[in-house]
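Ops channel
N.P.: pipeline sanity check, posting one input/output pair.
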């Protein structure tokens, strides 16, 4: 199994060329559509795991990986003019292959103790982020059915300013999902649908998925490019 840092280096190099097209602010100003904002749901971790890095398959120095379809998730955080947002905290959280969150109220009796369930990453100068995680699965927790999805939140300068969820493009359960149906505009729906494709030359049957997030405004950075405070706290919670 590839080491997390080796995997990250290899994959980020692969997406660097694609991100270069967005290096010039305004070049695609008329082509970028804002990503739909979706509520964070009730299962943002109520207690952070001991390991919060961007490899959700291995916890700390463990040797047993989580069970599921290994997925290399990458993307860019951009303004609607195509400007990359650097030094932004990107958080993701999701259920394991048993449909269980790490949140105490979202954890089923059966859950994968080797799945981190939550990760974070600081975007680079091109606005890129990267995670090694699992392809999401549907679940029914507390009588609430959800189509497969991964939650994503972005914080800058210690403030949470954007939250959404990415769904699997073409999945049969999307039509049953209340939050997805609540997005009436087909163009907006399309912004959160993500292809999970087989990774070429992977002997483990790994998948890759790309999710670029286009924000409705540019987040101004500090002069020295650093952040103040920690990761932004959720402003509100909605079902999902």
């Amino acid at each position: 199994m590839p080491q997390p840092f080796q995997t990250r280096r290899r994959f980020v190099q692969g997406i660097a060329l694609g991100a270069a097209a967005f290096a010039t602010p305004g070049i695609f100003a008329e082509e970028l559509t804002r990503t739909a904002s979706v509520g964070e749901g009730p299962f943002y971790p109520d207690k952070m795991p001991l390991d919060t890095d961007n490899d959700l398959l291995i916890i700390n120095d463990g040797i047993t990986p989580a069970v599921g379809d290994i997925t290399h998730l990458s993307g860019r955080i951009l303004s609607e003019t195509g400007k990359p947002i650097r030094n932004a905290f990107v958080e993701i959280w999701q259920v394991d292959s048993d449909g269980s969150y790490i949140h105490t109220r979202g954890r089923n009796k059966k859950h994968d103790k080797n799945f981190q369930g939550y990760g974070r990453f600081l975007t680079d100068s091109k606005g890129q982020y990267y995670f090694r995680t699992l392809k999401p699965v549907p679940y029914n927790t507390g009588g609430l059915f959800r189509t497969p999805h991964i939650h994503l939140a972005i914080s800058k300068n210690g403030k949470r300013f954007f939250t959404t969820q990415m769904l699997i493009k073409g999945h049969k359960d999307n039509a049953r999902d209340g939050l997805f149906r609540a997005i009436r505009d087909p163009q907006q729906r399309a912004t959160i649908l993500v292809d999970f494709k087989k990774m070429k030359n992977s002997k483990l049957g790994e998948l890759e998925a790309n999710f670029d997030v286009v924000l409705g405004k540019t987040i101004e950075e500090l002069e020295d490019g650093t952040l103040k405070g920690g990761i932004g706290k959720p402003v509100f919670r909605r079902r999902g």
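N.P.: looks fine end to end. The first helix runs from residue 4 to 20.
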